[in-house]
Amino acid sequence: MYKFKFADIGEGLHEGIVGEIYVKVGDEVQEGDSLFSVETDKMASDIPSPVSGKITKILIKTSETVHVGDDTFHFETDAPQEKTSHENENDNKNEEAASVVGSIKVSNEEFSFDSIMGSAKKEEVNLDNQLKTDTDTYKPYVGEKGKKYQGKIEQEFDVIIIGSGPGGYLAAEEVAKHKKSTLIVEKEFWGGVCLNVGCIPTKTLIKSIEVYEYAKQLEKYGIKGNIHDLKPDWVSMQKRKLEVVKKLTDGVRFLMKANNAMTMMGEAKMVGSHEIEINNKVYRGKNIILATGSVANRLPLEGFEEGYKKGQVITSKEAINLNKLPKTMTIIGGGVIGTEFAQVFSASGVKVTIVQDLDKILHILDEDVIKEISKELNIAGIDVVTSAKVKKYSRKTIFYEKDGKEIKLKSDIVLQSVGRKPLLIKGIENTGIKIGERKNIQVDYKNRTNVEGVYAIGDVTGQAMLAHVAYKHAIIAANHIIGLPTSPINANTIPACIYTHPEVAAVGLTEREAKEQKLDYFVIKGSMSTIGKALADGDKRGFIKLIVGKEFGEIIGAHLVGKHSTDMITELTISIDSEMTVYEIANTIHPHPTVSEIIWEAARKAVLMLEKR
């Protein structure tokens, strides 16, 4: 048998959409006969057969995305059988296969998606910051059958989804609206962590604080009156938060009903690779999507578990729902969650101290961004202790070591903000699904596990633990089940958004990473203080920083600090993802007056730099 793997299609492209398939199983073809067509945004081309023989299997479908290394056709032929990767090391030097642009050298060794993602490789994800993704999780799809349950089945579905967070409910919507019988199961609250105790409630509280900070400056905007007695009301802020959360979670349930997806409350347990037990009944899914999310890490140190039981040590889940404010708070961890909470509680009147084990907060961000946010925390009166190793907790006091000395820090509440870990469904150890070293479910670039028909999406995969990553995973998995084309996640273009004051947004490489990779680049910076809309808004804090390739002017990294940064980062994400250059951005009309003009101004500066070379 000869296996035909799709080869590099040239022009730096690594995927295409299958157009027309010209042959069927059983057909005899000659070497060079056209098998199928492939379309990209740049070209369309027929793919010729690499051998003469009889087609025994076709592994692609019309309108499906095909990637370099994907198996496309199997042949019964007299051509040499595929060899192992070791045997191929020498033979591959002379082997040719189909390409959209002529013939190129390829290897028939087992395919790994890492070869495509090489330029986007990152260090292992830091669970405290959750901004990068670990592309080493993209393993080749194996397609094992998995273990089957032999008992009574209550009902069968095309798709069963475990977890109703952003990834889960979007996947359910996508497959259900394409007439797939769908069951979605939730054990705690609809909308998952994001809608209930994560993204949405924290940003609701942050908005309240933002309004309060503006209120303190009303005289600067020409508004006078009795404004000095204003203060945050934590109870009222919590009430508003609950109203926002309820509206969104009710919307999720309505969305499921509108698309005829069956919903069920209860804790799910896997009793087979495609069988789920819920409320003592077993349901089978032709396809299973595991979207169980993650939970906050808890420090396994002396005294912390006892403090947790007493309510003196909490995680972000409890912090978002505190009934009353403490007078003092220690936050262990200076990542995204820690810094956001620090500003919320500090502005609400709590004395906050951040204790960080590394030498800086937000350590995987660009150095200029770190300096800016560190300055803002200092202005807000938040103490930041870096290079401090926490040892234990006792009687409302944490003990940490710094510069060889043990130091005590007492506070009413200790918030553990030390990242999150994947939450695995019960019974998964009995299904044959492969679990990674970080207790994450391993998936390939189509979010398939090693068990055929079982997918995992979102935080449980151990990749970047962000709602927008879960959304993308959901689309990938759902489209594969439905049979629609999709593109895999690009680890280098996952935007990071931090809702501090001012906001932070970033995509692509930091300057530190560009140096480490020895790239030929230059840096362009621009200040918000030069932007008319920022001055009119009365908030000129922040800047833009672009890291630009010298040869073509492509954007390698983009970093924004300032008002509306989290909204503006999309333009730069699209630019990097589409391999645009500063020339295209500089040539694009940006509306005036808007804060987004800072992107245009930076691009114009970059063009001038390139023209002077």
Radius of gyration: 27 Å
How many E strands?
32
Give the name of the CATH superfamily of the largest domain.
FAD/NAD(P)-binding domain
Strand content: 15-25%
Structural class of the helix and strand makeup?
alpha/beta
Distance between the termini: 55 Å
Q: Which residues sit in consecutive blocks of at least 5 with pLDDT less than 50?
A: 8-12, 82-138
Which percent bin holds the helix content? 25-40%
In the CATH scheme, what's the topology name of the largest domain? Answer: FAD/NAD(P)-binding domain
Average pLDDT, to the nearest integer?
A: 86
CATH class of the largest domain: Alpha Beta
For the largest beta-sheet, the strand count, sense and barrel status come to: 7 strands, mixed
Please name the CATH architecture of the largest domain. 3-Layer(bba) Sandwich
Number of helices, counting only DSSP H or I runs of 4 residues or more = 16
Looking at the structure, what is the overall shape? globular
Number of domains: 4
Summarize the structure.
The protein is α/β, with parallel strands linked by helices and 613 residues long.
